[in-house]
Design brief:
heterodimer, A: alpha/beta, Rossmann fold, 4 domains, six-stranded mixed sheet, 22 strands, globular, disordered N terminus, disordered C terminus, B: mainly alpha, 2% strand
Chain lengths: 542, 352
C-alpha cells in the first residue's frame, strides 16, 4: 500500500515545528459570501476563505471547482456578483474592485508563467515593476538599484547577482525572483502573496527547494495562499486548507495534517481509486518489445532496459538525469551517440519521428502547451493530426470520418468539450491532455512513451488518464514507458520502475516492492549524471 | 439557452468545466449563436454583393459600373494581384512572412520580356527561365528561413530589395515591349465566355490551391505548422521540408503571376514590387475574416480580392482618382487585420 500517511506525518512534522501561527483573530484575508455567475451558470456559490496571518494557505479543488475564479476575483480580473472582502481588518467593496485596488489592499500575485522578462537582468526586472530609482541628474541611479536588489537577492537566497539575466537562473530561483519582485515594496510584511501553480514547471528537487523558501518566509511572518495540483507538495507546505468543489467550499481545515487520500476524497466527493496501485496482476508478458542496449547520448551513458508487451515501466530520476532523452531516442527525435535499440526483436534506429511513428511508437511530450497543442485549431484537427494520412483517401481528406472519429474519441476518453469544432484552447488542462493522449492512442501504438503525462492536470483527470493508460496496456498489449518527476504517479501506475542515475539504470524495482518514500530515497541517492548542469540548462524553459 | 448545468450534476465526476460561452454557443444548432457564426463567415460575401448593387444604382457610377466591359477591366486588372495573394497564402498559413513575392513577380515579368525583346529567345524558353529563377528565389528564402533559422521578415525584406536592384540593373532604364503579335499578348487580351482568359487561369490556380490546403495532408500540415511548429514536428510533420516547399511553391506562383502581368500589359519595366504585393496581402488578411474566420483561407482570399477591386472600380467611376486604390486597400488592410486579430483572440479565449 502507499504510505501516504507516513509521508504526510513527516511533512506535517515540518510544518508544525515551523508553525508559529498568530492568534486566531490575526486574520490577513477574509472573503465571505462570494458569488459569481457566468451567464446562467453559477461558478461560485457563497464561497468563503479565511487566511490566517503568517501561514501558508492552500486552495484545492479540481479544474472548474471555483478556486481559480476566487483568485481571479481577488486579483480584480473578474468582478464578483456579491461578497465581502476584508484584508487586515479593512473591508473592500467588491463592486468596482480592480487590479489597482488589489494592489493597494496588499494582495500580490505570482502567476504560473511568472511574468518575468527573461532576457533582462534581475535588477531590471525589479526596476521595471517598481520604477527605476533616479539620481540627482535625473538619470537612473544604478548603484542604488543594485544595492537594493542585492539585499533582496540575499534575503531570498537567490543564486545570482543583480546583473544576472533571469534566463540564466535555475527555475526555482526564477520563481523566487518573481516572488521577491512582487514583495519588493512590502516592508511591513503585511502583504498576502498568492502563488498560482508555483511549481508546475519545476522538478521535484527544485519544488522542494522553492517550497522550503516559502515555508521559511511564512515562518518569518509572510502570508501565502498557494494553488497547486501537486497534492504532496501542498500537503508538505500548507497549514490551512480550503477545498472547493463545484463552486462550493466543501472543506476548511485549519492547522491540519490531512492525508492525500482524505483531501482527494473531499475534492472529489468520493474515493478515487485509480490514483493508487491497482494491486491487480499486471498485464506484462515476457515478450520484449522495446529494448535499449548500452544506449548513450545527452545525459545517458549506457542504458540497458527492456520493456515487454503489456508492461508499464516508469522512468524515475532527478531533473537532468536523461529521462526525457531516453524517450526522445525511442521516438526518433534524438539520435543515440552509441548503443543499440531494438523493437520487437529487430534493430531499431529511427532517423526521423515519422519513421518511429510508422514503426508504431507514440510520444506524449512533456510540455503540452509548447510541444503538443495546436491552440487555435479545433479539437477535431488536433486529434486528426496524427492520422492525416489514414484520413486521406481518394485524394480527399475525409472530414466526416475525421469528425465522427473525434466524437468517438471525445466520448471514449471522457473529454469535457463543447464539440469537435471547439478550439483546443477552450478546454481545461486536464481535458487538453486527454485529447493529446487520445491523439496517439487512436493509432494503436505498439510503444507508448509518456513524458510527465499528468503535469498541470487536476486530480480527477489524472485518475481518468491512469485508467486510460492501464487499459491501453491491458487491451492492446502496448508497452508503456513513463518518465515522470512525480514518484507517486510512477508508484501508482507502473509494473516496474527504473531509476536513472549517472547516465545508467541505477536501480530497478517491481511494483509493490517499495513505498513512495523508499522510491524517493532511491532517486535522491542515485548518482548524478556528470552532464547534469549542462543538461539542466538545456532542458529548462527559455 | 441550453442546459449547461448538466456539467455540474453529481454524475459527472470530473471537473465541471467553467462555463465559457462556447458551451452554450456550440451545443445548440438553431439559436442566435449560429446566426452570428453564419454572419461572421459570410459577411464579406454579403458586403461585396451590397457594394456591387450600390454602385450599379448610384449615380454617376451606375452608367459604366454594371457593364460587361467594366467587369472585364476589373477582373483582368486584379487577376494578377489575386494570384500573388494565393502565392502569399503558403508562407502565411505556415506562420511565415514573404515580402519578396512582389519583387519576384516583377523580376519574372521583366525577365520574360527581356529574354524575348533583348535576347530574342522563343516564348516558351522566355517563360521557363523566369519560372526557374522564381523557384530558385523560393529555394533560397526557404534555405535561409529553415536551415539557417533566419527571421523570415528580415530575410524576405532583404531578398525583395536585392531582387528589385537586380531588376533595375537588368532593365537599365529601358522598358521591354513585346511584339504585338506575341502569343502571350494575344492570350492576355483574349476572352473566354466574354470574360478575360487570365481570370479563368487564376481561378483554376485558386481551385488547385484550395484543394491543396483543404484536402491534402500537406496543406493541413501547413496549418499545423502555423499553429505550433514544435507540436507539428512531434506528430511527425517534416516541418522544415514542408515550409521550404511552401516558399518554393509560393515563389513559383508569384513568377507565374509576373508572366501573366506581362501578357496583360504587353511590356515590362522595373516597377516597385510593393504595388503588387501590398494589395495582395490586403486580400489575404481581409480573406482571413471570411468563410473560415480567424484563418487564412483560399475562398476568403478570392472573395476579398473581388470585393476590393469592385469597390475601387466603383469609387473610380464615381470620380475618385488615383488615390482611391491605395486609400481603399490601406483602410481595408487595417480593418482586416484588426478584425482577424480580434477574431483570433476570441478563438484563443475559446469563444469562437
Amino acid at each position: 500500500m502507499v504510505s501516504t500517511t507516513a509521508q504526510q506525518s513527516a511533512a506535517g512534522g515540518d510544518s508544525s515545528a515551523a508553525g508559529r501561527p498568530g492568534p486566531p483573530e490575526d486574520v490577513a484575508l477574509r472573503v465571505a459570501g462570494l458569488n459569481k455567475s457566468f451567464g446562467s451558470v453559477q461558478v461560485l456559490k457563497d464561497a468563503s476563505l479565511t487566511v490566517r496571518s503568517g501561514t501558508v494557505h492552500a486552495l484545492l479543488g479540481g479544474n472548474g471547482s471555483g478556486k481559480s475564479t476566487t483568485i481571479k476575483i481577488l486579483a480584480g480580473v473578474y468582478q464578483a456578483d456579491s461578497g465581502d472582502l476584508d484584508v487586515r481588518g479593512e473591508s473592500y467593496d467588491l463592486d468596482g474592485y480592480t487590479p489597482a485596488t488589489a494592489e493597494k489592499a496588499g494582495l500580490r500575485f505570482v502567476h504560473q508563467d511568472l511574468g518575468l522578462f527573461d532576457d533582462l537582468s534581475i535588477e531590471e526586472n525589479f526596476a521595471l515593476d517598481a520604477g527605476y530609482p533616479r539620481n540627482a541628474a535625473g538619470g537612473i541611479d544604478w548603484k542604488r538599484l543594485r544595492r537594493r536588489v542585492a539585499e533582496l537577492i540575499s534575503a531570498y537566497e537567490i543564486q545570482g547577482g543583480p546583473r544576472t539575466p533571469v534566463n540564466r537562473l535555475r527555475p526555482a530561483d526564477r520563481t523566487l525572483v518573481a516572488i521577491a519582485r512582487a514583495l519588493q515594496d512590502d516592508e511591513s510584511g503585511n502583504c498576502v502573496v498568492v502563488l498560482d501553480e508555483p511549481t508546475a514547471s519545476l522538478g521535484k528537487k527544485e519544488s522542494e527547494e522553492l517550497l522550503g523558501h516559502v515555508r521559511r518566509r511564512a515562518d518569518a511572518g509572510q502570508t501565502f495562499v498557494i494553488v497547486s495540483h501537486r497534492m504532496q507538495e501542498v500537503l508538505s507546505v500548507a497549514q490551512d486548507f480550503t477545498i472547493f468543489r463545484d463552486g462550493v467550499v466543501v472543506g476548511e481545515l485549519v492547522d491540519a495534517e490531512p492525508t492525500e487520500d482524505e483531501i482527494v476524497a473531499i475534492m472529489a466527493g468520493r474515493a478515487v481509486a485509480a490514483l493508487r496501485p491497482t494491486g491487480s496482476i499486471s498485464h506484462a508478458t515476457a515478450e520484449p518489445v522495446l529494448e535499449f542496449r548500452d544506449v548513450a547520448g545527452g545525459a545517458l551513458a549506457g542504458v540497458d532496459l527492456t520493456v515487454h508487451r503489456g508492461e508499464i515501466v516508469g522512468v524515475a530520476g532527478l531533473a537532468g538525469s536523461g529521462r526525457s532523452t531516453l524517450l526522445s531516442m525511442a521516438f526518433g527525435a534524438v539520435r543515440p551517440t552509441s548503443g543499440e535499440m531494438r523493437l520487437s526483436g529487430a534493430p531499431f534506429a529511427p532517423r526521423t519521428i515519422e519513421a518511429a511513428m510508422k514503426a508504431g511508437v507514440a510520444l506524449v511530450p512533456e510540455d503540452r502547451a509548447h510541444e503538443a497543442a495546436f491552440p487555435d485549431l479545433t479539437t477535431d484537427q488536433n486529434l486528426s493530426m496524427s492520422v492525416l494520412r489514414q484520413l486521406w483517401h481518394g485524394g480527399l481528406i475525409r472530414r466526416r470520418e475525421s469528425r465522427a472519429n473525434a466524437e468517438r474519441l471525445i466520448r471514449k476518453f471522457g473529454v469535457k468539450v463543447a464539440g469537435p469544432e471547439a478550439p483546443f484552447s477552450s478546454m481545461s488542462g486536464g481535458n487538453q491532455q486527454k485529447i493529446v493522449i487520445a491523439r496517439w492512442l487512436q493509432r494503436d501504438p505498439k510503444v507508448i512513451l509518456l513524458d510527465e503525462p499528468t503535469q498541470g492536470v487536476d486530480v480527477m483527470s489524472r485518475a481518468d488518464i491512469y485508467g486510460v493508460v492501464r487499459d491501453a496496456a491491458a487491451e492492446t498489449g502496448a508497452c508503456v514507458l513513463i518518465a515522470s518527476s512525480d514518484l507517486t504517479e510512477l508508484h501508482a501506475l507502473c509494473d516496474r520502475i527504473v531509476v536513472l542515475g549517472g547516465g545508467r539504470v541505477s536501480q530497478e524495482v517491481a511494483a509493490g516492492e517499495v513505498s513512495v518514500d523508499d522510491l524517493t530515497a532511491l532517486v535522491l541517492k542515485a548518482p548524478q549524471s556528470q552532464k547534469y548542469t549542462e543538461q539542466y540548462t538545456e532542458g529548462s524553459p527559455a | 439557452m441550453t442546459d449547461t448545468s448538466q456539467a455540474h450534476s453529481p454524475s459527472a465526476p470530473a471537473e465541471p468545466t467553467p462555463p465559457t460561452p462556447t458551451r452554450r454557443a456550440a451545443s445548440s444548432a438553431f439559436n442566435g449563436a449560429s446566426v452570428v457564426r453564419f454572419l461572421e463567415a459570410y459577411a464579406l460575401v454579403l458586403i461585396t454583393i451590397a457594394v456591387a448593387i450600390f454602385f450599379s444604382v448610384a449615380h454617376p457610377a451606375s452608367v459604366a459600373f454594371p457593364t460587361i466591359n467594366n467587369f472585364n477591366v476589373v477582373l483582368g486588372n486584379n487577376a494578377v494581384v489575386l494570384l500573388i495573394a494565393l502565392a502569399a497564402l503558403f508562407p502565411l498559413v505556415s506562420g511565415f512572412f514573404d515580402f519578396s513575392l512582389g519583387s519576384t513577380a516583377v523580376l519574372s515579368s521583366v525577365l520574360c520580356a527581356g529574354l524575348q525583346a533583348k535576347s530574342g529567345l522563343p516564348l516558351i524558353v522566355a517563360i521557363i527561365i523566369p519560372l526557374l529563377v522564381s523557384a530558385v528565389i523560393g529555394l533560397l528564402n526557404g534555405l535561409f528561413v529553415t536551415a539557417f533559422k533566419m527571421s523570415p521578415f528580415v530575410t524576405t525584406l532583404g531578398m525583395a530589395t536585392l531582387l528589385s536592384g537586380i531588376t533595375i540593373w537588368y532593365c537599365n532604364g529601358r522598358t521591354f515591349v513585346l511584339d504585338g503579335s506575341s502569343a502571350l499578348i494575344s492570350f492576355g487580351s483574349s476572352r473566354w465566355f466574354n470574360l478575360p482568359a487570365v481570370f479563368f487561369v487564376v481561378l483554376l490556380v485558386a481551385v488547385v490551391v484550395w484543394y491543396f490546403f483543404r484536402h491534402t495532408p500537406y496543406g493541413r500540415s501547413l496549418y499545423a505548422i502555423g499553429s505550433n511548429a514544435t507540436s507539428a514536428r512531434l506528430v511527425g510533420v517534416p516541418v522544415d521540408r514542408n515550409v521550404w516547399t511552401a516558399f518554393v511553391v509560393s515563389a513559383l506562383i508569384a513568377g507565374f503571376a509576373g508572366i501573366l502581368q506581362l501578357g496583360r500589359q504587353g511590356s515590362a519595366t522595373a516597377v516597385d514590387g510593393g504595388s503588387l504585393l501590398f494589395p495582395a496581402l490586403a486580400a489575404v488578411f481581409l480573406g482571413a475574416t471570411a468563410i473560415v474566420p480567424g484563418f487564412f483561407n483560399v475562398v476568403g482570399t478570392v472573395v476579398s480580392a473581388i470585393f476590393v477591386s469592385i469597390a475601387v472600380s466603383g469609387l473610380t467611376l464615381m470620380g475618385a482618382s488615383g488615390w482611391a486604390t491605395n486609400v481603399f486597400n490601406g483602410a481595408a488592410l487595417l480593418v482586416a487585420v484588426g478584425l482577424s486579430t480580434y477574431l483570433g483572440r476570441r478563438k484563443l479565449r475559446g469563444k469562437g
